[in-house]
Amino acid sequence: MNPNSSDPTVQPVPASVVEQVDAADVTLSNPKTAVISLGSNLGNRLETLQGALRGEAAGPLEWDPSPSLTVVVAANGYPGSYAKGTVINGLDTVPANLAKVFHAGTDLDDSGRVVSTGGRVLGITATGTTVADAQRKAYEAVDLIIPSMYPDGFVRRDIGWRAV
């Protein structure tokens, strides 16, 4: 039981997960949250989040011990000035068994197309049998997106290097 709660269904995030997150930033647009969300078995996440907002316990959480890694696709020029409104095509063609694409700095334009609106545009998150496997899958998905789907994007190529 969580020592800070009298409700036995409220579970703390395991220390092993917390140690792998290098900042205590839990905003849902933060790429670090994407990794945590893939590592948990929350069932219907929308219902879980809505219940939490109503003060309802989500029930026990089960954590997948598989390593996950997120690569941020940022707008060229970020953190300085960068273009907004660039159309991003084909995100639905990234295979679901390869990686998940989390939207951060995106919106839909008047035609219903996904466009960039922020510096951190996408979080590409993959899970693997090892950190190296998760890293390989994340960058494989990134390489599908840049340059063909989002030519104004860039990524760092050193994500996860300490763990690999």
Give an overview in words:
This protein is of the alpha+beta class. It folds into 2 domains: 65 residues, no CATH class; 91 residues, Phosphoribosylglycinamide synthetase, C-terminal domain (Glycinamide Ribonucleotide Synthetase, Chain A, domain 4, Alpha-Beta Complex), CATH 3.90.600.10. It contains 4 helices and 8 strands, in the order ααβαββββββαβ. The strands form 3 sheets. It has a 4-stranded antiparallel sheet with strand order 4-7-3-8. The protein is globular, with a radius of gyration of 17 Å. It starts with 14 loop residues before the first helix and ends in a 10-residue tail after the last strand. The relative contact order is 0.17. The N terminus is likely disordered.
